[in-house]
Amino acid sequence: MNKLPVFILISFVFASHLLAQQISTPLEKNKYQKVTSYDELSAFVNLMDEKSGLVKVEIIGQSVQGRNLYALKFSTSEFGQDKSKIKVLFMAQQHGNEQSGKEGALLLAQAMLKPENRYLLDKIDLAIVPQMNPDGSEANKRRNGNATDLNRNHLILSEPETMALHRFFDKYLFEVTMDVHEYSPYGEDWEKYGHRKNAEETLGGTTNPNVSENIRQISETEVLPFVLNYLSQNKYTSFEYCPGGPPEIDYIRHSTFDINDGRQSFGILNTLSFIQEGKNGEDNFIENLQRRAEGQMCGMRGMLEYVSLHKNEIKKMVESDRKILVSGKSNPKVSIQSDHFGNGQKLSLPMYSYSTHKDTVVIVNDYRPVVKTLYDVQKPEGYLVPKQAKDLVEWVGKHELIITEFKKQKNQEIEQYFIKGIDSIDFERDMIINPVVETKIFEGEINASDYLFIPTAQLKGNMIVLALEPKSELGLVTYEPFRYLLKTGETFPVLRVVKK
Ligand SMILES: [Zn+2]
Fold first, then answer.
1. Model confidence pLDDT, tens digit, residues 355-375
2. pLDDT of 213-268, one tens digit each?
3. Which domain holds residue 35?
4. Do 318 and 383 share a domain, yes or no?
5. Which one of 12, 40, 239, 289 has the minimum C-beta count within 10 Å?
6. Rounded to two decimals, what is the model's pTM?
């Protein structure tokens, strides 16, 4: 090649790089006065793809009303192919009325193209799904086009949006995930109490007791403090995610342990998984939008910083914890009923005072930071799901569970639950069903061709137990469409295969 074409090539690459860096997000173009519409978002992500070789757009699915769900995949090589890199997934705006998550995600996407941030992509393959719920976003409503709360849908996967996200996750098996939301601290109860939560950004890790202890520990003692500190160094107020309250009226805890949300549904696969919630506008969703969007971006940016500094240890931890899960030997007992407990510690909770209009600190006495098991079951070798139960079979397919041929071994027996009655139990301040069961040995002959056999020795092993046990607080039978599986005076149709 002679000198001229090389020069032209270099200046072309340089120019297109400069161009890519100069792409403004729709929010910036709108001078922070208008949230990004679906059409603007579509145009923006496609422009990013066109202008920069660092990012590729993948359409991971469609919403109920037929809008595209986009993933922006950032990589200096072929996404997901370089095994020395760590894979991170951020998703935002599952709730359509939580606009700042999307705006922050788009700001981050733009920032990833800047040369000063290239060091992050030397270590990280980053995927951003900026808008999980475009239908809700267009209407500024929490729920999707079927009026379903997507962030309670990650177990049953009845919606196209959550199904698409899980298919995407399963394709790459991301080591780190973060689900970006907003919280609304306002309301009569709080005004009456005299204070409200006020942190601009809050962050929480996984709390389900079946997630590997390493992951829960490191999230709490290392990752959260790092990112919260990163936020405060960048002048955003931040605190650990603490739902519940007002204090003295109801307890304060750390996140739900339910596995039907974005964070825990990936956490239960031993993913280092988080939720970030920025503070919503008080009077309308435009209020403070620039500050809110930049705060959300800053938290995501802080998470990338942590991950890039600790890439190898996170990869090693996730890999070995997942290996144990796949071997089926992770935890012989699976916790299927839990609750939040105190540990004698009081919480100093930063709050805004309605009387002084200033930030202050309130001491919370009823603080319950620990999730403890109330009831657990021995993990079986697998479950037999009757093929007749079409909806269950469909559910197995949605989660892409491994199914194998069943041939009863000499050292195995089959257990069946008899439903004696249906009680109730408090689950995070909701009364839900709690069946009374008796375990019986299944005496009849099994016609293996009438069943799917789902071994628990697989990545989704703990999720499978939580989903299929009738006494599980988080199980399928707690959802209306699967409620029919539980009938008093009858046997539960899903069978357990156990070692004798
Ligand atoms: Zn939300």
1. 999 999 999 999 999 999 999
2. 999 999 999 999 999 999 999 999 999 999 999 998 999 999 899 999 999 999 99
3. 22-327
4. no
5. 12
6. 0.95
CA of 367 to the centre of ligand 1 (A): 23
Ligand 1 center to 431 CA (angstroms): 22
Instruction: Note whether 390 and 255 are same-domain residues.
Output: no
pLDDT score of 16 more than 60 = no
Name the nearest CA neighbour of 150 among 202, 205, 93, 101: 93
- Same domain assignment for residues 292 and 441: no
State pLDDT tens for residues 370-389.
Answer: 999 999 999 999 999 999 99
H or E element that contains 382: strand 382-386
- The three state secondary structure string of 107-121 is HHHHHCCCHHHHHHH
| Cα-to-centroid distance, 33 and ligand 1 (Å) | 22
> Across all residues in the chain, what is the average pLDDT?
94
98 alpha carbon – ligand 1 mean position (Å) = 6
DSSP H or E stretch at residue 306: helix 289-309
E strand or H helix that includes residue 198? none
> 176: how many CB neighbours lie within 10 A of its CB?
26
